[in-house]
Design brief:
252 residues; alpha+beta; six-stranded antiparallel β-sheet; three-stranded antiparallel β-sheet; 4 helices; 24% strand; globular
């Protein structure tokens, strides 16, 4: 099974939408030329593009064609290959880190052992790549200067059960137990308790997001205070950057 197929199933469960791999979507959505418009005058415009970026000039005639799968509901979405970075995918399914300590951003990094990590394409997305520690790591266990530590976030389908529910739900305007912000955890076993469950090809899975968090604005809440596990609070959304999606097959 390809990572894109499994990822599509996971994101479909999280978003309550139909998400398919790009190859499947594009195969069902051929670009249909306008009946009087030469091919070299046709553009496939992304939703966030401006007219100027597409070189559409004043007094141009614009024909709009909405693309969707012929036999699918209008909420069918796809994962574009440009959103992923397969060279950083890593299968931790059979990895055991007992006796090893990994550091990221001078915090212990509890790797997602037992999970498969699918990498998001985040290189050069921000002002620099220092937050990822790219290219300067001497050993895999070592941290890098200005690197951000790693956290995990598990959000259950339709937010019916999430790490938020034990003290915060900003999106629903509820009171935060430990303060306002985005909550995550450095321990993927804690995130697992709040992870979205989904079934694919008869097997059960869970999915969580892997993030980097800005240590300069990080608020730490101990396991003793939460009664569940250590929580990290990022007061500003810009202080938490997802860079991977971790999927685990549940063995009953």
């Amino acid at each position: 099974m390809s990572n894109q197929v499994l990822l599509s199933a996971a994101l479909s469960a999280i978003t309550n939408s139909t998400i398919v791999p790009y190859d499947d979507y594009s195969g069902n959505n051929p670009f249909i030329p306008h009946y009087n418009n030469p091919g070299n005058n046709q553009l496939l415009v992304k939703g966030d593009s401006t007219l100027a970026e597409c070189n559409i000039q004043c007094e141009s005639t614009i024909y709009i064609l909405r693309l969707k799968c012929a036999d699918s509901p209008s909420n069918t979405l796809f994962i574009h290959p440009d959103q992923l970075d397969p060279k950083y995918d890593y299968d931790f399914t059979n990895i055991n880190d007992n006796g090893l300590t990994f550091m990221r951003g001078n915090f212990e990094y509890k790797r997602p052992c037992g999970w498969k990590r699918i990498a998001l394409n985040v290189l050069n997305k921000y002002e620099d790549n220092a937050w990822l520690g790219v290219g300067k790591r001497k050993y895999s266990t070592c941290s890098v200067q200005n690197e951000w530590p790693v956290s995990y976030h598990g959000t259950a389908k339709n937010n019916c059960k999430s790490i938020a529910e034990d003290g915060y739900l900003l999106c629903k305007g509820k009171r935060f137990l430990f303060g306002h912000g985005i909550y995550s955890t450095p321990d993927i076993d804690v995130a697992y308790q709040y992870a979205t469950k989904f079934n694919h090809d008869g097997d059960d899975y869970r999915v969580v997001f892997q993030n980097r968090v800005n240590p300069n604005n990080l608020i730490r809440i101990s396991k003793g205070e939460t009664g569940v596990g250590e929580y990290w609070i990022s007061p500003d959304g810009a202080d938490l950057r997802p860079y991977g999606i971790c999927i685990k097959k549940v063995i009953n």
